[in-house]
């Protein structure tokens, strides 16, 4: 049977082991809700936007690098990485966390391994705590969405459980299945529907596995 295959440009990044990350302290402990260190060690998910994000510290040798990881499982399936260019800052009441960051861009030429580079533009990001498990932030309205201080506001739920796998299957899978199926129909019109379906299932499962791995950033 002919081996069918297409590429959707999903890049995999492996950077090392987890280290620590902490929020700044604030004086007004009586004012609630305020950010806690544990908030940065969990996941944020929004079914309405079909996105999820989390903070990650990666240690390589003696160096520790912080990352902001956004998984878009809906509009434009993929993972976006941000590298903070400043330390995290808290508002006076301790409810709004903000930082500036640059996006990591991936470029592939001549079927080589994707090359990563930091965007020249600096982006702003703010996360406001509304309750113990509810937070609000904004997503840009561009094709490839990113966390921003402008755009559309969404409410995210704080969770201990990693939402990547469930969001990938629920939201990303239908989109990827449609994309892969259409591509195979065009590239291999002479192949039977059963073979194309089998190839579609195999590739979509691989893309979903890579998507989850990229989100986890281990």
Describe the structure.
- The longest helix has 24 residues, at 164-187.
- The protein has two helices and twelve strands; from the N terminus they run ββββββββββββαα.
- It is an alpha+beta fold.
- The chain is globular.
- Strand 3 (51-60) and strand 4 form a beta hairpin.
- The chain has one domain (37-216).
- Residues 4-20 have low confidence and may be disordered.
How would you concisely characterize the structure shown here?
With 218 residues, the protein is α+β, with helices and mostly antiparallel strands. 22% of the residues lie in helices and 34% in strands.
The major beta sheet can be summarized as:
8 strands, antiparallel, barrel
Task: Report, as a whole number of angstroms, the end-to-end distance.
Answer: 36 Å
Q: Please state the CA-atom Rg, rounded to the nearest Å.
A: 19 Å
**Class per helix and strand makeup:** alpha+beta
State the assembly state of the protein chains.
single chain
Strand order of the largest sheet: 2-3-4-5-7-9-10-12
Number of strands: 12
Work out the count of structural domains: 1
Unreliable stretches covering 5 or more consecutive residues: 4-20
Count of helical regions: 2
Shape: globular
Strand content: 25-35%
Mean pLDDT metric: 84
Signal peptide: 1-22
Keywords: Signal
